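Final paragraph of the annual report: two paired records, presented back to back.
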Amino acid sequence: MKTKDRQYKDLIQCILDYGERVSTPQDVDALTCFGTAKNLVYDLANGDPIITERKMGIKAPIAEMCAFINGEQDFDIMKEKFGVPEAFWGPWVVDRKTKKVGAKKRCLGDGSYGRAFAAFPDNEGGTFNQIENIIRMLSDDKLKNRRTIYMTSWIPFMNGWGRNQKTVVSPCHGFVHFRHFDGKLDLVSWHRSADTLLGLPNDMISYTALLRMIASVTNLIPRRIIYQLSDVHIYENQIEEAKEILSREDKILPELKIINKKERIEDYRKDDFEIIDYNFHKAMKISSAV
C-alpha cells in the first residue's frame, strides 16, 4: 500500500520557519536555508517524486533532460527538436544575457548543462561524454559496483563568475551520483541552488526521468532517488503561493513510466513517457525571479 507523501510541504514549511532573508542577483529577496534542509528521499515503490500540491506538466522537464543528454545548448533547437517550452529558458537567452557571457544568439552557453553532460572539456583538448561513461560503467560487471559513477554539470572555469563565465546562468543542479545494489539502481541528485516553488518541482521530474532512462538502457531496476539541497530558497514574491501550497491536502504520488523503450539513451523523447495515477491539486501560477 502506498502512503501519502508530504516531504515537499515539510521543506516549504522549514524554509518559511527557519530561512534567512538574503538579497539575490535577481533583485528579489529570498528566504534561504543553506545546508540544513532535510534530504528528500523517494522510494519509487511508493510513487515517483512528482508533486501533487499543484498540477505539474511532466513533458517539459523530460524534454529538457533529453536535450541535455544530447549535448544541446541552442535553445531554439531545444524547442523545435525536443519540445522544451519557451518559458523554461526564453527569459535567460535574451540578447543582453547571451552577449554578456559570449554565447551565441539564443544559446545557454558553452558551460551549460548539455555541454557538461555530453561534451565536457577534457585535458587533451577534446571532450568527454559523462552520460555515455555512466552507462558504460553500469553495463560492466567489473565496474557497476563502484562508488565513482558520478556526473557533474559544473565546468569550474566557465561558471560561478570565476575566470571565464560562459553560461547565462550557472548550473543549479546536475550533480548526480549513481549506485548499483544487486540489480537495482539508486540516484542522489545534488542541487547547488533550488528555487523551491518554481524550479525544484520540474528538476525533480527531470532527474526521475534520467534515473528511469539510465536504468532502462542498462537493464537495471530504478529503486530510489534522493534529492540533496544545498542553497534552498523561496523568493519573497512567492511567499503567499507557498502558504497556499501548505494548505492543500497530502496525496499519493503517481508513477512516471517509460512506454517506449529505447536501446540508446540519446533516442529518448518526452513522448516516450506517461504518468499514471496522478491525483493532483489545481494548477498554480508561480511567480518567477529572473
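The closing record of the year follows.
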Amino acid sequence: MVRNGEEIDPKVRKVWCDMKKNLLCAVAVFVIAGLCAGAVQAGSREVRKVESCIEILSEIMEIPEQGMPPALLNDAWGVAIIPNLIKAGFIFGGRYGTGVLVVHSEDHGWSNPVFVSLAGGSFGWQIGAQAIDVILVFKTKRSLDAITSGKFTLGADASVAAGPVGRYAGAATDIQLKAEIYSYSRTRGLFAGIALDGAVLQIDYKANSAFYDMAGLLPLQILTSKEIQAPPVAEDLKKTLTRYASQPGG
C-alpha cells in the first residue's frame, strides 16, 4: 500500500484497517441499537397505556355505591377506555386523548384491545383545563361497526348519555334514555361545560402497529382473530373486564 508516494508499513496498514473495521462495526451497532430502542419505546408506551386503562377501570368500578353497574358492563357490546383525556378552553375548547377499545367476543369473552383516539372541539361557556378519565360503554353493535369502519362522531353517529351509577342500578335505564352509548368520567381538575357530543373517536393505527409489532393491522383483525399475539398486559385487561362484569349485581 502506497500513500503520498511512500509505502506504508504492513503493520501500520493492518492497524489502520482494523480501526476502520471496528469503527464501521461500532456505527452499525449504534444504528441497530437506536432502531431497536425506538421500537421498544413505542411498544412500551402502548403497554403503559393499557396498564392505565386497567387501573382506571378498577378504580371506577370500586367506587362505593357509585361505580359502573356490572350488569351494564356484562351486557355491553364493547367498552372504550380513554385515560387522561385533556380538555382545555376559554369559550372555545378542545379535547384529546388516546386509549383502547375492546368488544365482547362470540364466546362472551373479551377481545384484544384496539387503540383509539378521541378528539374534538367545543363552543360555549367553558373556562379552565382538566384531565378526565373516560369510559364509554357501547350498547349496540351498530356503533362498533361504525368505529371500526372509520371515524365515529359521538352524538351525531350515535346518542350519548351519562351512564347510571351504583352496583345495582338497572341497565334497563336505557329504555328511558334511548342512548346507544353510556359515558362515565373521573375528573382531576376544574372545568365548566363537560360534554362529549361532537368528539370524534377513531382508530389509532400507529399505536396498534407498535403494540402488536405488526404493520397494516385492521381493527377487525385485532378484534376477531385468535392468531394475533398480544403482549401479556392485553390478557390482564380481559381478566379485569371479566371480573367486574361478573360481580354481584351483574
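The helical segments are 10-61, 70-75, 141-149, 174-177, 205-212, 219-224, 232-245. This concludes the annual technical report; the extension proposal builds directly on these records.
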